[in-house]
Amino acid sequence: MRNKVKIAVVGIGLMGNQHLKAIHLSKKATLHSIVDISDKSRIHAKKFKVPFYKNSNNLIKENKPDAVIVATPNQFHEKHTSSFLKAGIPTLLEKPISDNITSAKKIISNAKKNRTPLLIGYHRRHNDIVSNVKNKIEKGKIGKIVSANVMCWLYKHKEYYKEKWRTKKGGGPLGINLVHDIDMICYLLGTVKYVQASTSNSIRKHQVEDTAIVNLIFKSGTMCTLNVSDTIVAPWSYELTAGENPAYPITNQSAYYIGGTKGSIQFPNYKYWYNKSERSWWKPIFYKYENSKLSRFTLINQINHLCDVVQKKTTPKVSGYDGLQSLKIFDAIVKSAKSGKKIKIN
Ligand SMILES: NC(=O)c1ccc[n+]([C@@H]2O[C@H](COP(=O)([O-])OP(=O)(O)OC[C@H]3O[C@@H](n4cnc5c(N)ncnc54)[C@H](O)[C@@H]3O)[C@@H](O)[C@H]2O)c1
Questions:
Q1: Ligand 1 atom at minimum distance from 77 CA
Q2: Beta-carbon neighbour count of residue 338 at 10 Å?
Q3: Considering only CA atoms, which residue is closest to atom 38 of ligand 1?
């Protein structure tokens, strides 16, 4: 394809590497350059035959890309997006938007002031199954949504904890896994009004939680429970059911259950449950398998979407505001678990 969108990637760690692969596989994008403070990342620039920079400002001055992906540690997100947004370069920023609400707001206002598109890397929204579920909900196929249940039970092996930051604040399953579920459930069900949560570290005894339960109450009145643990051997998590990452074996189960007055949905093993005539617990309940082809291409879809935003064909699917909402909910979960109180989201 002509006019491929030229994308620079800043920060080539675990996630930056995934983005390099996704850009390589995208038909709409091409890798422009790599930025990393570490010389280790020169090897990737050599592999893809693109320029390497140690500093974003040099890149902007010398060789402006069409778009940039920022995949550096969370505490640097504000600093690392600032010069790109000021230069009017559309920016896909990895999740979470920041490690704190004040700086997240500054990132959003910088993007707004400079009229520059800002996208947040909650890539699950780019999964076709998730789009199909959203469509079905919006068409009213399951009626008014009453309640939802999200499961995120995993067992993280011993070696995973060799990285000591994973045993400390922010490194537990709330910050690593559940943040994605929070974004997804808000995408599907709307704005959250109240949050209540409890956490426990009673099995692993790390400084950070190993298990948490979270109640969300949405503005619409819909209720939702999210149940996360990294110390349960189980098949029910988005990670093990969606097939997005080949690192995880697929279990052909579901992690999301959304119930409405006319029917209910489970996915990623996507089934729609309903009564054929009268709605009644005394009548047979049927299910239809919906279009639920598992997709390994979520990150490529996200890159293609970024290209469409650059070319002004669409607007960001996950905006800075969406990133801020997820961060506020995450913050409220931590506060509620500490205080035992129900927290209102403003
Ligand atoms: N979407 C997802 O599923 C997902 C998964 C993992 C991580 N992430 C997010 O991706 C981001 C990066 O996480 P990671 O696990 O890849 O981290 P990482 O530590 O593996 O990599 C970070 C990289 O950033 C580089 N870096 C640090 N400071 C820099 C600077 N000033 N300029 C340029 N490069 C700099 C480091 O040298 C390193 O190469 C985080 O925001 C994280 O939350 C998202």
A1: 41
A2: 10
A3: 13
Domain range annotation of the chain:
5-124+299-315, 128-294+327-344
Helix 320-339 vs helix 179-189: crossing angle, to nearest 10: 120
The CATH classification number of 128-294+327-344 equals 3.30.360.10
Q: What is the CATH architecture of 5-124+299-315?
A: 3-Layer(aba) Sandwich (3.40)
Mutate which of 10, 72, 183 for ligand 1 pocket (most atoms within 8 A of beta carbon): 72
Q: Which atom of ligand 1 is nearest to the CA of 18?
A: 16
HSE, side-chain direction, 13 A CA sphere, residue 172? 22
Of all protein residues, whose CA lies closest to atom 19 belonging to ligand 1? 13
Nearest CA to ligand 1 atom 4: 15
**What long-range pairs does 109-116 form, CB within 8 A, spacing at least 24?**
110/81, 110/82, 110/85, 110/86, 111/81, 111/85, 111/320, 114/85, 114/86, 114/88, 115/88, 116/84, 116/85, 116/88, 116/89, 116/90, 116/91
Backbone angles phi, psi at 76, to 5 degrees: -105, 5
Run means of pLDDT, 10 residues per run, the chain, 346 residues: 89 95 97 96 97 95 96 93 97 95 97 98 95 96 98 95 87 92 97 98 96 98 98 97 90 97 96 96 94 84 98 98 97 97 97
